[in-house]
Amino acid sequence: MAFITANWNPLGDAFYRKTELYEMCWNIRDELKDSLVATAPYGGPIALLREPHRRSPSSRPQLEIYSASGVAIASFPWKSGPVVHLGWSVSDELLCVQEDGTVLIYDVFGSFKRHFSMGQEVVQSQVLEAKVFHSPYGTGIAIVTGSSRFTFATNIEDLKLRRLPEVPGLQGKPSSWVVLTQDRQTKVLLSIGPELYVLDNTSCIAVCPPGLSQAGSIVHMSVSFSYKYLAVFTDTGHLWTGSSNLQEKLSEFKTNQTAAPKQMVWCRRPKSQQPSVVLMWERLLLVVGVCNDTIQFPIEEQSVLVGELDGARIISSTHQELLQEVPLVCQDIFKIASMAPGALLLEAHREYEKSSQKADEYLREIKEQNVLGDAVRQCVEAAGHEYDPDTQKALMRAASFGKCFLTDFSPSHFVMTCRELRVLNAVRDSSVGMPLTHTQFKQITLQVLIDRLVYRQFYPLAIEICRYLKIPDYQGVSRVLKHWASCKVQQKDLSDEAIARVVCHKVGDSPGVSYSHIAAKAYECGRTELAIKLLDFEARSGEQVPLLLKMKRSQLALSKAVESGDTDLVYTVVTYLKNEMNRGDFFMTLRNQPVALSLYRQFCKLQEQDTLKDLYNQDDDHQELANFHIRSSYREQRLEGRLSRLQSAVDEYNKAKNDFAAKATEEEMRLLRFQRKMDDEKGAGLLGLSLQATMEALMSLGLHKQAEQLYKDFRVPDKRYWWLKLKSMAEKEEWEELEKFSKSKKSPIGYLAFVEVCMKNNNRYEAKKYVCKVTPEQKVKAHLAVGDLEGAADAAIERRSESEMGAVLSRCSASDRLLIDKLNRARVAATKK
Amino acid sequence: MAAHLSYGRVNLNILREAARKELREFLDKCAGSKAIVWDEYLTGPFGLIAQYSLLKEHEVEKMFTLKSGRLPSADVKNIIFFVRPRLELMDIIADNIISEGKAHSSRDYHILFVPRRSMLCERWLKEQGVLASFTNIDEYILDLIPYDGDLLSMEYESAFRECYLENDQTSLYHTAKGLMTLQALYGTIPQIFGKGDCARHVANMMLRMKREFAGTQNQILPVFDTLLLLDRNVDLLTPLATQLTYEGLIDEIYGITNGYVKLPPEKFAQKKQGEASKDLPTEPKKLQLNSAEELYAEIRDKNFNAVGAALSKKAKIISAAFEERHNAKTVGEIKQFVSQLPHMQAARSSLANHTSIAELIKDITTSEAFFDNLTVEQEFMTGVDTDKVNTYIEDCIAQKDPLIKILRLVCMQSVCNNGFKQKVLDFYKREILQTYGYEHMLTLNNLEKAGFLKTQTGSRNNYPTIRKTLKLWMEDANEQNPNDISYVYSGYAPLSIRLTQVLARPGWRSIEEVLKMLPGPHFEERQPLPSGLHKKRQQGENRTTLVFFLGGVTYAEIAALRFLSQMEDSGMEYVIATTKLINGTTWIKSLMDRPESQMP
């Protein structure tokens, strides 16, 4: 503990430290020298392609993938074309850029995922150099070809190649170049000798770093992690640093080294006091601060630099170290003779553990300045920045100790840091090998960390972390299980049965795990039977359907769609089946699914009338067939067509044993023929009228005989016919005819109707003629209808009907005094009885 | 905004607000000025959720009705189609887009499917080659629309026809989804009862959907204690009868659509003093009817015969209130009077409106034709001579009364007689075909298929048993101060509501026999609640039941349920939901098929 500052080196007014992360687990010697190396930031995996240029087929180069701690993950001989560049995507996929512009993508376990090309013209001109970069859109690739043209894509997931304009005067590749992402725009910054150009989608502009005094050739460039800063190295040994938009200069430094460095990276951290650029040569590591102060480290072995958000990692064949500016809070606490509150608290706690009363003195001092809260906060924060668990513990204990003397201090920061440190220590462990700093962890978020553990198939650890940090199942455990299951179904050495069983056992009913998703994965790997087994566990039948269709299990898809109750889904499957099957099979399938069948009928009613007919035909549904013919008969433009349709309907109704409908339709045909005949002969304009309306029209045309004919032919009930005649004659004021008609036989509709119809046609005189014929029950009503109150009163009194007397009374006006008295008396008499 | 939705036992405004929020979010997704192209069918239901002002706030500048051909010109950035997922509408949209061509290349097109998007429709659009023209394709989940403080409707007009005639259960899927949304907002409903095939289907889907969400527990304290799902075909009789409540009669005579009624204007002419009312308004008077109007809330569910008294009582109160001004002496008193004026004036105009409506209705209800019709209906309901051809119907046919009236009566007779003898049925059918035209063959066929018309098949008529057991006919219905639900039909107690009433007390076990006579299964399901959500009922606190009528409900039935809610000793409050508010006429109309002749 006392030596915590032993590895601190001053740089300007700040300190830099180099912390050992791992003793590397791998077993390599000089391979770093003659291999293509790809290292991923945020403690990601490392890929090595040994001797990439050895082309004889007998000895293929070997591609090896290691965790950041050097644990071998995969190794296989490279069988494709010569590789120019290796790089890692944001989701831990390895991108191998070949000379011919093909980019092959492998997952972290070395299994091939997919490939794409950087453009047809590249095949000819070949890729000279390539860079993989991370942009706000995802992972990007930029290449420069033998014809000195640049092409890039900003997101390999949504590949859109952009070929940049020609660079005037460029032969071969530029002496150095970098990719910049500024204001959501991606550009290339390149140098040709001493000149510097910015190349974007539309133009190539010469630029000059402000204040670059020495005009040697630019041989190396580097942009910072955030793309905000640029470092430029010239062959005169000058290092220029400034903003990447070339508006501002930070510093210029002469290194006394004329050879271009092997690697040059920025070493900064958020809220950096003293950012620096790290340059690496064969035997020297030089840290140049913008204050022009430097630190030199000798290098004993081949090493690789990895720029990070808050520092730089140095990987050699035996060790891995993190070089970073010591965070301010750590400086405050650990700087020798520091009087910062955190430093005092740490000291106080140390004394307390020794049971020394000095603890109290220190505490008193902090409390007198009223900074105990700050002290605790400092210790917690510093613990986050420390890599060594013992130091973390010491700081956290001190914080916890300090907290005891505070009354209302929110513990959440303390608790959260404890938990996060525990997670970080777990993933930093050499067996996992993710040397994330707390700052990096906060940047990538827990979600991404879990994703990365999942990519690496550390499922138990990921689940452990989710549970420990109490992440809602949806985002946590379920997501991990989903990945696990998707991976499980790809295991070729297990039987379908076994996999289905183990998946079901582990996943169970976890919310948010979609079995259809897992099944889709299984299907992708060619395990259809397994996919079907897994789909059975899916509770949402709607989710099962699309995959079942894809797997050509359409019958099963149909029954699942029906089960879901979602008619839209049923329709979807039905239209799918219709295209897929021959008609006979399609109809048979529908027959077994009544719900689907009726939906399809609905569809046909709107869109495919003829199919509808075929459907009914197949089912021998004669009733519906007949109805179908009836419906279509109305669409016929000509009478003959209509009649033949109706005849088909009659036939079908007969087959359906629907005698009534068959007869009625025959009647309809007879009527139509009759109407046509009358229209032709007399121009009566009857076609399309109902039977009743036809008779009415005939009567009003005076064609009584023909009306009579219909009455007989169509066996029209007497009642209706009488009504018809009565009304027709009254309307035409054929009163004599009417009277004759009334006497032709006993009226089936009674005689009140005659009275009312006459009155309706304003003939009281005629109306009165029929009053006497009315049955006794209707007498009162008839008298009232013709306005004969006295007659009504007499009839009512005769019938001794109280309610009828009341009805008459309600019609009497004040002038009918006598009548009213008479009725009232009769009423009283009636009630007495 | 919609205060009347929050008065009830269950605050339905929550549902409305959720719907409005979703609408706003969608509109904001389409940045810039907008024009909406409406599926005409949707405008009414949408009016219950959002007025034009809300749309306007979100840059909706124009509105059109969906029809074929070129879109009307509009200088807007976005064209949004609000449509139901139906293929025939997709054809129109495709036609619109194709006719538009390249004219407005900078324009964005969007589709909002109501109530949910459809793979079928999207495929259809794709086949027409226009799917790629749409920037956003989204769904607006609007299943249950808050209609009043205790009433939800899906406004799904064809639901009954689709379910019982065409075996298309789309509406039931929407119902189940709607009930899931409702439960998400108001908590899981612990008990589900149901009667009928559709009810069973809906309940099955709900339980299945709940399983699909397994793992995510609903943590809302349940508002509803019970859900009762009722198939309309369990009670075909009730909607056929003429409703006799105030609101029911307004609907029977003038038709209420989406909460609005259009009335003949003559009675509403503004009589300004000193001005002869020369020019009568010709536009129908459009009135909104809901419980936000105090007077209407008071009288809507009364038997019409009790409305007159209520109106005159109200008139006295209002004029007394206006008289108060003479007693106002001090400045303070006058100020207080003035502050009440707007409320009083609103009450006065509301009174004037309803007095006019009541007069209009009274003209009809006192007519002989209305009386005769009602007499026959009541004869049927009491089982008088239902097995013979009815003379009144015969006469009506001979007089060529409107066909729907005839169909209502014939269907009613058939239902009350559990079907006709073959001879009687054939007679009616022949009369109808000969008088109104053979094209009604299809309609008659539909009515037979849906069970309205049938022949007696051996089994005896069980309607009298049902009537007696459930006390469907009450001889001494009190219209003024009702003590039983039978007041809504002046004697007939709606079968559907009796079932609801018996379920609450003493329970369906007491009427097993009758339930077996009615079509479809009856069932009970329980949805377990997570511990901690079990209600601790206060002493005397009422239980709440959601009654869902699959295939429609009438205003009279709603009135009967409200009556039950208000009964002091019932211990149960009802919230009503349905696929559509219906009456006998709209209902029968939805089952009609009338091919138009193409012959010249």
TrEMBL record, chain A:
Output the lineage of the source organism. Answer: Eukaryota, Metazoa, Chordata, Craniata, Vertebrata
Give the Vps16 N-terminal domain ranges. Answer: 5-415
Query: Superkingdom, according to UniProt?
Result: Eukaryota
Where does the record place it? Late endosome membrane; Lysosome membrane
Determine if Cell wall biogenesis/degradation is one of this entry's keywords.
no
The UniProt subunit note reads as follows: Core component of at least two putative endosomal tethering complexes, the homotypic fusion and vacuole protein sorting (HOPS) complex and the class C core vacuole/endosome tethering (CORVET) complex. Their common core is composed of the class C Vps proteins VPS11, VPS16, VPS18 and VPS33A, which in HOPS further associates with VPS39 and VPS41 and in CORVET with VPS8 and TGFBRAP1. Interacts with RAB5C. Interacts with STX17, MON1B. Associates with adapter protein complex 3 (AP-3) and clathrin:AP-3 complexes.
* Organism, as annotated: Kryptolebias marmoratus (Mangrove killifish)
GO BP annotations of the record are:
endosomal transport; habituation; intracellular protein transport; regulation of myelination; regulation of neural retina development; swimming behavior; vacuole fusion, non-autophagic
Q: How does the UniProt record describe the way this protein sits in the membrane?
A: Peripheral membrane protein
Q: Which residues form the Vps16 C-terminal domain?
A: 513-826
GO CC terms, sorted? CORVET complex; HOPS complex; late endosome membrane; lysosomal membrane
**Entry's Gene Ontology molecular function annotations:** actin binding
Principal cellular location given in the protein's record: membrane
Check the record and name the PANTHER family matching this protein.
VACUOLAR PROTEIN SORTING VPS16, VACUOLAR PROTEIN SORTING-ASSOCIATED PROTEIN 16 HOMOLOG
Full protein name: Vacuolar protein sorting-associated protein 16 homolog
Which is one Pfam family of this protein? Answer: Vps16_C
Q: What's in the keyword line of the UniProt record?
A: Coiled coil, Endosome, Lysosome, Membrane, Protein transport, Transport
Where along the sequence do coiled-coil regions lie? Answer: 636-663
Chain's role: Plays a role in vesicle-mediated protein trafficking to lysosomal compartments including the endocytic membrane transport and autophagic pathways. Believed to act as a core component of the putative HOPS and CORVET endosomal tethering complexes.
UniProtKB/TrEMBL annotation, chain B:
- The UniProt transmembrane annotation reads none
Task: Please provide the record's keywords in A-Z order.
Answer: Cytoplasmic vesicle, Endosome, Lysosome, Membrane, Protein transport, Transport
Q: How does it sit in the membrane?
A: Peripheral membrane protein
The reply to whether Transmembrane figures as a keyword in the UniProt entry is no
- Coarse class of the primary localization is cytoplasm
User: Can you supply a Gene Ontology BP term from the record?
Assistant: vesicle-mediated transport
Q: Which InterPro entries match?
A: Sec-1-like_dom1 (IPR043154), Sec-1-like_dom3a (IPR043127), Sec1-like (IPR001619), Sec1-like_dom2 (IPR027482), Sec1-like_sf (IPR036045), VPS33_dom3b (IPR043155)
Q: Which GO terms describe its cellular component?
A: autophagosome; clathrin-coated vesicle; early endosome; late endosome membrane; lysosomal membrane
Q: Where in the cell is it found?
A: Cytoplasmic vesicle, Autophagosome; Cytoplasmic vesicle, Clathrin-coated vesicle; Early endosome; Late endosome membrane
Record flagged with keyword Oxidoreductase:
no
What family does this chain come from, according to its entry? Belongs to the STXBP/unc-18/SEC1 family.
Function, as annotated, reads: Plays a role in vesicle-mediated protein trafficking to lysosomal compartments including the endocytic membrane transport and autophagic pathways. Believed to act as a core component of the putative HOPS and CORVET endosomal tethering complexes which are proposed to be involved in the Rab5-to-Rab7 endosome conversion probably implicating MON1A/B, and via binding SNAREs and SNARE complexes to mediate tethering and docking events during SNARE-mediated membrane fusion.
State the protein's name: Vacuolar protein sorting-associated protein 33A
